[in-house]
What we know:
InterPro entries: DNA/RNA_pol_sf, Rev_trsase/Diguanyl_cyclase, RT_dom, Viral_Replic_Matur_Polypro
Order of helices and strands: EEHEEEHH
Helix content: 25-40%
Organism: Araneus ventricosus (Orbweaver spider)
Protein name: Reverse transcriptase domain-containing protein
Strand content: 15-25%
Number of helices: 3
Domain Reverse transcriptase: 3-64
Amino acid sequence: MSSLLRNCEDFAVPYLDDVAIFSQSWEDHLRHLEDILHHLSSAKLHIKLSKCQFAQAYVKYLGHLVGQGLRQPAELKVQAIKDFPTPTTKTQVRAFLDLEG
Length: 101
């Protein structure tokens, strides 16, 4: 997906089969969306509308809430970190670091 959208890297962040599009204005967002859809269509790829979110100020993306200059862990991730028992072994420390990262 990254190579397919390499010309859109100023406003699109692809990860596997997800793409987040960041725009400064509604007009920019429509143009960016059109560019992304054109690239996907050219590669004979399709989107599933039920999984799409359009024109959102904030979205959950890769375990984070992002938008309008904000990037913070999603609430479920924060709660999982808070609820994680204090690690007492190397294996538990690794598990915690995997959860946090």
